[in-house]
Amino acid sequence: MSTVQLRRIDPSRNMARFYMLTVQPSLFGEWCLVREWGRIGSPGRVASTPFPSPALAEAALDKCQRQKVRKGYAQPI
Protein backbone atom coordinates (compact mmCIF):
# COMPACT_ATOMS: atom_id res chain seq x y z
CA MET A 1 0.00 0.00 0.00
CA SER A 2 1.51 3.31 -1.12
CA THR A 3 0.67 6.87 -0.15
CA VAL A 4 1.91 10.10 -1.73
CA GLN A 5 1.14 13.56 -0.36
CA LEU A 6 1.65 16.64 -2.52
CA ARG A 7 1.12 20.35 -1.90
CA ARG A 8 1.05 23.47 -4.04
CA ILE A 9 1.32 26.76 -2.18
CA ASP A 10 1.56 30.14 -3.90
CA PRO A 11 0.74 33.08 -1.58
CA SER A 12 0.75 35.60 -4.43
CA ARG A 13 -2.18 33.73 -6.04
CA ASN A 14 -3.86 32.84 -2.71
CA MET A 15 -3.31 29.18 -3.57
CA ALA A 16 -2.91 26.46 -0.94
CA ARG A 17 -3.85 23.06 -2.37
CA PHE A 18 -3.20 19.46 -1.45
CA TYR A 19 -3.35 16.23 -3.45
CA MET A 20 -3.07 12.79 -1.86
CA LEU A 21 -2.73 9.50 -3.74
CA THR A 22 -3.18 6.10 -2.08
CA VAL A 23 -3.19 2.53 -3.40
CA GLN A 24 -5.30 0.21 -1.26
CA PRO A 25 -7.33 -2.98 -1.60
CA SER A 26 -11.09 -2.71 -2.09
CA LEU A 27 -13.78 -4.85 -0.51
CA PHE A 28 -14.28 -6.68 -3.81
CA GLY A 29 -10.74 -8.06 -4.27
CA GLU A 30 -9.57 -5.28 -6.59
CA TRP A 31 -6.95 -2.64 -5.96
CA CYS A 32 -7.95 1.02 -6.00
CA LEU A 33 -6.13 4.26 -6.63
CA VAL A 34 -7.78 6.70 -4.24
CA ARG A 35 -7.23 10.39 -5.03
CA GLU A 36 -8.12 13.15 -2.59
CA TRP A 37 -7.65 16.83 -3.39
CA GLY A 38 -8.75 20.29 -2.30
CA ARG A 39 -7.77 23.43 -0.46
CA ILE A 40 -5.53 22.96 2.58
CA GLY A 41 -7.64 23.26 5.72
CA SER A 42 -10.90 22.14 4.15
CA PRO A 43 -12.33 18.70 3.44
CA GLY A 44 -11.26 17.48 0.04
CA ARG A 45 -12.96 15.68 -2.79
CA VAL A 46 -12.35 11.95 -3.19
CA ALA A 47 -12.30 9.72 -6.26
CA SER A 48 -11.48 6.01 -6.44
CA THR A 49 -10.43 4.10 -9.56
CA PRO A 50 -10.36 0.26 -9.43
CA PHE A 51 -7.57 -1.83 -10.99
CA PRO A 52 -7.28 -5.64 -11.30
CA SER A 53 -3.76 -5.78 -9.81
CA PRO A 54 -1.63 -3.76 -7.40
CA ALA A 55 1.04 -3.28 -10.08
CA LEU A 56 -1.42 -1.49 -12.38
CA ALA A 57 -2.65 0.68 -9.51
CA GLU A 58 0.95 1.61 -8.60
CA ALA A 59 1.67 2.50 -12.25
CA ALA A 60 -1.39 4.80 -12.28
CA LEU A 61 -0.21 6.39 -9.00
CA ASP A 62 3.23 7.08 -10.51
CA LYS A 63 1.69 8.59 -13.64
CA CYS A 64 -0.64 10.84 -11.65
CA GLN A 65 2.21 11.91 -9.36
CA ARG A 66 4.39 12.88 -12.35
CA GLN A 67 1.54 14.94 -13.81
CA LYS A 68 0.99 16.83 -10.56
CA VAL A 69 4.71 17.52 -10.08
CA ARG A 70 4.82 19.00 -13.61
CA LYS A 71 1.97 21.32 -12.59
CA GLY A 72 3.92 22.63 -9.60
CA TYR A 73 2.97 20.29 -6.75
CA ALA A 74 5.76 19.12 -4.42
CA GLN A 75 6.04 16.74 -1.48
CA PRO A 76 5.90 18.50 1.90
CA ILE A 77 9.12 18.64 3.87
From TrEMBL:
Signal sequence region: none
Keyword Cytoplasm among UniProt keywords: no
Xref: PROSITE patterns: WGR
Keyword Transmembrane helix assigned: no
Highest taxon, organism lineage: Bacteria
Keywords linked to the UniProt accession: Plasmid
CDD domains found in the cross-reference section: WGR_MMR_like (cd07996)
InterPro entries: WGR_dom_sf, WGR_domain, YehF/YfeS-like_WGR
Domain WGR: 1-77
Name of the protein: WGR domain-containing protein
Organism lineage: Bacteria, Pseudomonadati, Pseudomonadota, Alphaproteobacteria, Hyphomicrobiales
